[in-house]
Amino acid sequence: MAYGAKQSIAWNSNAAVGCGTGRNLAPLLEAVGAEGQVYGVDLSEGMLGEAKVLCTKDGWHNVELMRADAVDYVLPEPVDDAIFSLSYAVIPQHRDALRHAWNQLRQGGYLVIMDAKLPSGILGKLLHPFVVWTSKLTVLGNPDVRPWDELRELTGDVDYEEAQFGTYYICRARKR
Ligand SMILES: C[S@@+](CC[C@H](N)C(=O)[O-])C[C@H]1O[C@@H](n2cnc3c(N)ncnc32)[C@H](O)[C@@H]1O
Prior knowledge:
Rossmann fold, 7 strands, globular, binds S-adenosylmethionine
């Protein structure tokens, strides 16, 4: 099923790992509904400050923001869904963060990773050195990280899709 398609699954709680300024929280709130709970985890005080302003402005009362490292945050409950949106490839210990998020998922829950990527083929090869250089100076993620392969080390049940002419991907695994 395409990720954009409506699903009849009711989530109770989810977690955005590396939630940043909270721009990706709106669809997570929509997924859990008014009674659900969203957890936003980020290492940066500044990012969380902006996320807090956004939550207050938009009246998002069921968001709990926590300042913690993606490798060792503690949620008050296992969640139905965890997402790394534009954050996975900037986390230095991403494999540890992945395993940590996986361990905090409920049975049947989904772990989702969405990020930018280099296009395949000659264009990607040409851009690679520039992106590696830029990623050292900015918050651009490491282009050599392959989360879909890292997810496959946890489960064989991984979906992968590309968008925007191969410059973005979304991969997803379900915890059985
Ligand atoms: C490019 S921002 C993405 C923000 C947001 N998810 C979005 O989609 O707009 C990446 C975020 O990951 C956070 N981050 C980087 N390393 C982290 C770590 N080890 N633990 C938690 N958050 C981390 C950064 O502080 C930053 O807010």
